[in-house]
Specification:
With about 180 residues, the protein is mostly helical. It is built from nine helices and no strands.
Amino acid sequence: METKNKLQSRCKCDADFKKEVIKMVESGRKVTDIAQSLGIGTNLIYQWLKRARMQSNTPDNSSVLSFDEEKATLQKRIRELEMERDILKKSLGHLQPLDATQMYEYIHSEEGNFPCCKLCETLEVSRSGYYAWRQGKTHQPNPTKRKMEQKIIDTFHQHKRRYGSRRISKTLADQG
């Protein structure tokens, strides 16, 4: 190994010396200990290791690179799927039918393709309600409640979808 004075930061090392250093690292010695004993920088040793692994194309190196690439790809896919899920969940309120039995029928038809708990969670329907519907234990909707819901919806649309819950309740209270 030839070293130059400290003003010049580069040192010229032959290939045999580099191989010996790489063998030392692979034998289990710490890179910092090797660098201190030989008077070279740790970054230099890491560069030699990287080049040696690239040249030899060891399975260890390629699996690490492919693992990192696969991890990044999967993380990107997860972000995309979470965004799609959030969009569907937000739009579910606008697309969801008022009658829960339609949702239960859909869940029943898709139960072979997807887990029931995930379908209920995604469609924002209680599992207990679905299982009760499946066993035929459904409650009869209260006609008074249905009329009130329709009045609320009508008032909301009558005022160009601008009224919130407080204004709607005040308007309905004024009407009687």
